[in-house]
TrEMBL record:
Organism: Streptomyces cavernicola
Signal peptide: none
Residues in P-type ATPase A domain copies: 132-224
Keyword Cell division: no
Subcellular location: Cell membrane
Keywords: Membrane, Translocase, Transmembrane, Transmembrane helix
Membrane topology: Multi-pass membrane protein
Main location: membrane
Domain of life from the UniProt record: Bacteria
SUPFAM superfamilies in alphabetical order: Calcium ATPase, transduction domain A, Calcium ATPase, transmembrane domain M, HAD-like, Metal cation-transporting ATPase, ATP-binding domain N
Protein name: HAD-IC family P-type ATPase
Amino acid sequence: MTERADIDTEGPDPAGRRGAVDTRAATSPARAMPALGLTTAEVAERVARGEVNDVPVRSSRSVTDIVRANVFTRFNLIIGVLWVIMMFVAPWQDTFFGYVILANTGIGIIQELRAKKTLDNLAVIGETRPMVRRDGRAAEISTSEIVLGDLIEIGPGDKIVVDGECVETDSLEVDESLLTGEADPVVKKPGDAMMSGSFVVAGGGAFTATKVGAEAYAAQLAEEASRFTLVHSELRSGISTILKYVTWLMVPTSIGLVISQLVVKNDEFKESIAYTVGGIVPMIPEGLVLLTSMAFAIGVIRLGRKQCLVQELPAIEGLARVDTVCLDKTGTLTEGGMDVTEVRPLYGADEAYVRKVLGALGESDPRPNASLQAIIDAYPDSEEWRCTESLPFSSARKYSGASFSEGNGENSTWLLGAPDVLLPAGDALLDEIEYLNHQGLRVLLLTRSGTELDAPDVAAGTRPHALVVLEQRLRPDASDTLRYFAEQDVEAKVISGDNAISVGAVAAKLDLPGAERTVDARSLPRERAEMAEVLDDNAVFGRVSPQQKRDMVGALQSKGHTVAMTGDGVNDVLALKDADIGVSMGAGSEATKAVAQIVLLNNSFATLPSVVAEGRRVIGNITRVATLFLVKTVYSVLLALLVVCTQVEYLFLPRHLTLLSTLTIGVPAFFLALAPNKERAKAHFVRRVMRYAIPGGIIAALATFSTYLLARAHYSGEGAREAETSAATLTLFLIAMWVLAIIARPYTWWRICLVAAMGVGFLLVMVVPWLQDMFKLKLVGTTMPWSAVAIAAAAAVLVELAFRWVDRRFPA
């Protein structure tokens, strides 16, 4: 059909046509032969000179960064110094806490390295692979293999990966909004600059790479977009805030404790040092940071096994907080492919002629969308027809077009697109189209224009020739996924550029609540507050423009919603960028994958529930176990202050608190942090944790110190210090166990077994002679041990009442 020299390709696109070099000009039928690109020898020469786009796109932190982040922490430094001191002044049993830190740090490094490996492997799968023309052949290569001067082919949805200059254009429109903030696409002509980080929204062409490697902005942009990061997370920033306050409390308290134990008391020097360190170490919630990093890392690994690439780690947390999911219909609820079910000629049009027009239109676009690909599959091209000018499909226009020389001396211009855009309001055809749309079918109008294709009013006064009826393929898992969101109190909003009635029919087939109330987005109010009201009251929206998608996300956010946006086309990019969480399909455009935080490499919408569940597991469980860690910090600080104020010996040796921390916090927290948790994540992490930690820690400290003072009055003579410590340890253990029992609710068989196992572990220490000697714990007599149990029981009741009062007085 066309006078086009197709150049051989490697790695065709899904349409089977990618790599074909289109020689048609945007506005002229004549055009020079296409550039052939660099030769193999020229590429080798540039590689030798280092003119390669070799800046690596890292999906994770480097090994050095991981080791540094886990080893060189503020609290590891403090504990490391105390550990070294204890090695010189105390028995080996009192240095356990140092070995625990070594083990924790090692586990953290190993888990993050596993997460890094998973992310790096997935990043290779989802890596951008541009089409580069060399030796006259177009082939997909890795971004890092581009050299200076390479000729790179581009089409709708392609991301501009390096800076360059246009060489060939075919109605090329580029969106530079991510760089300049300008929403309107920029029409490109040969000689125009191409900005890396922008993307193609319509048309196609080729450009020469003028900046590669570190000089190209794209390298920095891509690395930022896909870096494994632990920042901008409410969970991690909340923990950092808590640790900052802990440090402020710990420093003066520790100084007071040191002075109290070394200067005021006249105990043996080494023993005083040991008890002093025993008072400082438990103030540090060192395991909380490790457990958070480990929970995130394990989440990445779990999602990686489901072919889900988490480009920004906080996305796991963010999606757990989501209460509204905006879904693009095409590619999300429906599969990418379509089938032509019927062509209805209009007003006596000849069906054979209509089929010729459709075949020619299909051939006129070197990068067809799903609708046009279905037409190409159904209607072969006519060799006699020659395309003289083409207008690629644009989401903003809602139609595409082409002008032809039909071989018999006649010229014609045709448009193919949305009937409600190409037809005037009130046209009789719209009723017939609406009936088809109600059945969930997609309808395109083929119409002939009497003006030139580049005329501003090309769509005005056209003559309809046929309706093309297409059937969309529903994703088999879409209905179950929507049902999952409904069960989890997450509202689903379908936002599509297609006809509103057709979108509503598809949503109805998937049993989406509110599908019967479909809104045409062209009637939406422009004011954000008014738009937000309409969005809250309805679930399905059609004829949404790309800018409107962005505005709708903003309107929902203005109402306090946490919004996730899914999509795969260039018309979704702006909304994906502005949403709290952007989710792209792996087969989506490079532009959508560049701005999304999560990429579903298997293109399965059904993976989203797994991501939501993983996020809820991480956030909910870390919030639970953070209470355990911070109750310990609160009672440790308060016990130290009580010791300083009363001028008595400190209660515990490091080994005692190592034992307590292991049985009531460390081991249980590990299992609880990895347990299933379907509760939607809530905001205000610090407040939610501290409202339990402060009363729980205060009650535990006061009860334990009371037992210690009673024991000091009760015991005397040799072995009194050990007996006093043992009684206080028993009280503190029982209270901490009750806190653990509260945190472990709701009970399941394994949670009950976990709590019981920790109790059995402590019992063994208290009754097995060699464990008694190792931990320097031995209950003496019956009066004081039973008094310790009674005090602990009373404190446990107070903790229970305090937690219930907090729930009523300060609801989350």
